[in-house]
Amino acid sequence: METHSIRFATPKAPREQLVLFPQCLDQLVAEDAPVRTFAALLDEVDWSAWEQEYEGCGQPPIHPRYLAGAILFGLLHKVRSTRELEEAACKHLDLIWLLEGFTPDHSTFAKFRQRHAQAIKDLQKQIAKVLVLKREEALLQLIIDGTRLRADSDRHGARTAHAIEMIISELERRMEELRRNDEQAALETDDFEGVEQQEDKRETLARLDKQIAQLQKQRAKYQKALGIAHKRDARAQKHDGKKAKPVRVPVTDPESHVLPNKEGGYAPNYTPVATVESQTGAIVHADVLAGSDEAGAVVPALRAAEALTGQKPDAVLSDTNFASGEVLSALDAEDIAAYMPTRSASPPDNPALRPDPSTPVSEEARKRLPKHGRQFARTAFVYNPQADVYHCPMGHALTPYRQHKNKHGVPCTYYRCNACPDCPLASDCIKGKVSSRSITRDEHEPLREAAAQRMATTEGKAIYNKRAPVIEGAFGIIKLCFGIRRFFLRGHANVRTEWTWICTAFNLKKLLVLASSSASGAPTTGNRHCITPQKRHYGRIMRVFGASFVETIRHRILRALQAPRRCPYVKKEQLPKSTGPFAGMTVLGQVWPPGHPRGAGPRATRQSRSRKSLFQKEIASLRSQ
Ligand code: SF4
Predict the structure, then answer these.
(1) Is pLDDT above 70 for 322?
(2) Cβ of 389 less than 6 Å from ligand 1
(3) Confidence category of residue 589, pLDDT binned at 50, 70, 90
(4) Of 87, 163, 362, 603, which residue is the least packed, with the fewest Cβ within 10 Å?
């Protein structure tokens, strides 16, 4: 048989090849490597605050520029764990170049990350300031939103105060038993026994002491969790009275809360909040909330943004979770326009908004009256400020009958209708055992109505439409491109520091994009983070639907692929046959499964349907490209 001879390429640098001139580290990294831009940006940073944290004794420390640079570089390349960072510092050429041959170990990275909590905050602000000053319009609009990230705590390790008390008493019983054994072993020491026996006893005593110390450590952990559980129980009782259920506290990280995940289900979570400048997308303020009350993050974010830019924000854009009466009141006091959906926002074509609210809504229009569950929503009632009454869909007046403070301590007026018993719409209007419909109105209601009017204008809609692409894009980059799905540190203060590192890396990435765009002459606006076609598609979908929605779909498809028979959302025969970024997305029977709390109610169903059709259109257009 005739042999087919091919000449294969010879290696460019055989392992045994000697070189005439020794290579320097700089030759190993390409001239246009992004790490060079990264290092140039680090050179511009003022490190004096970091340097002050060091004392002049002992071995000379590694300059903070190297360690901070390596941690931030690692975050940009999905290398978060300090052990992985230690390994990368010896193997990753860019990192070796950046560290100039320093090879810090994991504990050095870990200590450094926590030691410079304040300095990293300042660095995040420094970079944000550079970005914000580059915006084209003088208008300062802030977008604020929160997301969920898992705490470093076991999902099944959350316990009530009662359960923790039982565990502590069991630990104490075991400790008592070990102490008795310890004393017994000490008493049994005999001066006449051999050296080997004495050695064995010493070992036994040491082992018992070690076990006792371990149990004491565990008891301290449970006692900390117990203190937090008691506090949360007291708060829940104050809030809900007798209906309050015992709160479950995650034992490993008791400062986190068991909260709903973005992908469904419950787990110990924190709520990181980011405040982003709308034009540049820079994170100007980063915070982490232990609970889910996001509204409390608005005022500190305003103060921080004002201090950073030296300018009062013109507008704040957020979702409905931030639109509390207190927030609207604080924004109004400072003359800052709030673009937030409020409960007073009327749906389009609301038949309740008729010329004369004292007349009934026509019979054919009644089907279109807004509902909350099976009951008429409050937007089906029209307020008359002159008479201080609400008009119901039948045109009857709801008059004030009592004043009270709500659960937030805000004074409220309750309005009640006296014509309900004979009303033909009572089944759609009254819920439960009460005989008449009532509506509450607190002192912040005029501000909610003003925000709803602002949002209903064409200009208001155009401004509010900026919110989702910017903020969801930021969370999408952090979660998908940086791979941040959970915190590695425990405790609220440590988690805050970790989030600040993440937000600093995000701002640095923005600055890198800006720097490389200016160097290449490419446009400096727009999202240029998504590089591969797959990531670019995800970027587009995220801009339309938001990161959390895309993640829900991805999570569901993965479940379908892993356990096709059990998955309630996708039938077996509907499973995708092709692979690729969108495989399986068109086979989803529905966006929210039946019985899912987010799918309940007509509004959620409407949203769900419209999202599904938009999603399918987007995928069809992407496939046709
Ligand atoms: S039930 Fe009462 S409040 Fe509701 S529409 Fe009828 S009269 Fe008006």
Answers:
(1) yes
(2) no
(3) very low
(4) 362
Q: Cα–Cα–Cα angle for 418, 420, 422, nearest 5°?
A: 115
DSSP letter assigned to residue 585: G
Q: Are residues 536 and 613 in the same domain?
A: yes
Number of structural domains (the chain) is 4
Bridge partners, 382 (sequence order): 391
Please give the model's pTM, rounded to 2 decimal places. Answer: 0.77
> Which ranges constitute the DSSP H helices of 241-324?
298-309
Helix (H) or strand (E) holding 315: strand 315-318
Q: What one-letter code names the amino acid at 157?
A: G
Q: Are residues 87 and 164 in the same domain?
A: no
Residue 63: domain span: 29-115
How far apart are the C-alpha atoms of 379 and 370, rounded to whole Å? Answer: 7
Q: What is the mean pLDDT of the chain?
A: 81
- Token pair in block for residue 25: 């580290």
Q: Residue 539 — very low, low, confident or very high, per pLDDT cuts 50/70/90?
A: low
Confidence grade of residue 616 (pLDDT, cut at 50, 70, 90)? low
Ramachandran angles phi, psi of 517, nearest 5°: -65, -40
Q: Which two tokens stand for residue 87?
A: 């390994």
Quick one: pLDDT at residue 532? Answer: 38
Q: Whose CA is nearest to atom 4 of ligand 1?
A: 429
Q: What are the angstrom distances between the C-alpha of 74 and each of 68, 311, 505?
A: 10, 34, 9
pLDDT at 127 exceeding the cut of 50: yes
Would residue 76 count as lying in a domain? yes
358 domain residue, yes or no? no
Q: For residue 411, what are the β-bridge partners?
A: 405
What are the CA-CA distances from residue 454 to residues 276, 333, 346, 350, 447 (Å)? 21, 17, 12, 17, 10
Q: Which of 517, 470, 118 is nearest to 278 (CA)?
A: 470
Q: Show the tokens assigned to 230.
A: 């008691």
Residue 529 has pLDDT above 50, yes or no: no
Lookup result for tokens 């921080």: 304
The answer to whether the CB of 423 is under 6 A from ligand 1 is: yes
289 lines ligand 1 (CB under 6 A): no
Q: Domain boundary at 61, 85, 115, which?
A: 115
Three-state SS string over 268-292 comes to EEEEEEEEEECCCCCEEEEEEECCC
Mean pLDDT value of segment 131-136 = 85
pLDDT band at 71 (very low <50, low <70, confident <90, very high): very high
Convert the pLDDT of each residue in 265-285 to its tens digit: 889 999 999 999 998 899 999
- Span from the CA of 429 to the centroid of ligand 1 (angstroms): 6
Phi, psi of 317 (to 5 degrees): -115, 130
For a ligand 1 pocket test, name from 390, 414, 425 the mutation site with the most ligand atoms within 8 angstroms of its C-beta. 425
**Do residues 183 and 244 both lie within one domain?**
yes
Q: Confirm whether 486 is domain-assigned.
A: no
The three state secondary structure string of 152-181 is: CCCCCCEECHHHHHHHHHHHHHHHHHHHHH
Average pLDDT over residues 92-99: 91
Q: Is 361 in the pocket of ligand 1 (CB under 6 A)?
A: no
Who wins on pLDDT, 239 or 97? 97
Bridge partners of residue 318, in order along the sequence: 144
Last residue of a domain, one of 233, 250, 267: 250
Question: Would residue 206 count as lying in a domain?
Answer: yes
Percent of the chain with pLDDT over 70: 80
The answer to whether the beta carbons of residues 257 and 236 sit under 8 Å apart is: no
